[in-house]
């Protein structure tokens, strides 16, 4: 386990292009994945996440051509997710040279996929992404959503996070529909709750707008990694500036 906070640009993909929306909808184009992956590697990204966000709802697999193109273009660790429904899908991604996989809807519907993947590849390579929305009727106040945030499950997000750990997940990636794309800050309540309840590394996702938001994700949200999309894609925040800011405020980052 690294002893610094990881900076992770996220490439959300649709039709082979990077897209970004608000609350998981109203997607707009944000560039070419290979070109941006190269840019982020040069800027000092610790990892890159690439999520084919419409694969599951469109009933297709991850776009492996894009995965292979990005893997061959950069040396930075790459996590791939979207359209993963079986151990064979995971094998295809891992065999392409990706460093880890992110499992979401399929892991919720078929929990044994998480345990089987962890057994084959090791927990550290299995990230369980949990899309959530606020719901006062479940114990934690957060409900699990699947199918790219389109389908409510009625299940408590914190309980599923604990289950994911028991099944062998090595990291958690919660994204709150309430904050996604808003640039008003991460949903620190659920990020911190999952970190404290499971002891697993949790990656903050959904809502970064300022350097302060990213700092708070670590000190208040207990995040081990900071994932962001819009602020990086539209060059509102640079990775070097973010690392300098975090370092000055006492957060350990790589390269400084």
Question: Brief description of this entry?
Answer:
By secondary structure, the protein is of the alpha/beta class.
Helix amount: 25-40%
Report the uncertain regions: none
Top CATH class:
Alpha Beta
* CATH architecture descriptor text: Alpha-Beta Barrel
Strand content: 25-35%
- CATH homology group: Aldolase class I
Task: Map the helices and strands.
Blueprint: E1 6-14, E2 17-22, E3 25-31, H1 33-43, E4 48-52, H2 64-73, E5 78-81, H3 87-95, E6 100-103, H4 105-109, H5 112-121, E7 126-134, E8 142-146, E9 151-156, H6 157-167, E10 171-176, H7 188-198, E11 203-204, H8 211-219, E12 225-228, H9 230-233, H10 239-248
Parallel strand pairs: 1-4, 1-12, 4-5, 5-6, 6-7, 7-10, 11-12
Antiparallel strand pairs: 1-2, 2-3, 7-8, 8-9
Record keyword descriptors for this entry.
twelve-stranded mixed sheet; globular; 256 residues; TIM Barrel; alpha/beta; single chain; 10 helices
Please tell me about this protein's structure.
With 256 residues, the protein is of the alpha/beta class. It has one domain (6-248): Aldolase class I (TIM Barrel), CATH 3.20.20.70. The chain has ten helices and twelve strands. The chain has helices at residues 33-43, 64-73, 87-95, 105-109, 112-121, 157-167, 188-198, 211-219, 230-233, 239-248; strands at residues 6-14, 17-22, 25-31, 48-52, 78-81, 100-103, 126-134, 142-146, 151-156, 171-176, 203-204, 225-228. Strands 1, 2, 3, 4, 5, 6, 7, 8, 9, 10, 11 and 12 form a twelve-stranded mixed beta sheet that branches. Helix 8 links the parallel strand 11 (203-204) and strand 12 (225-228). Helix 1 packs parallel to helix 2 and helix 6 packs parallel to helix 7 (188-198). The two termini are 18 Å apart. The model has no long low-confidence stretch (mean pLDDT 92).
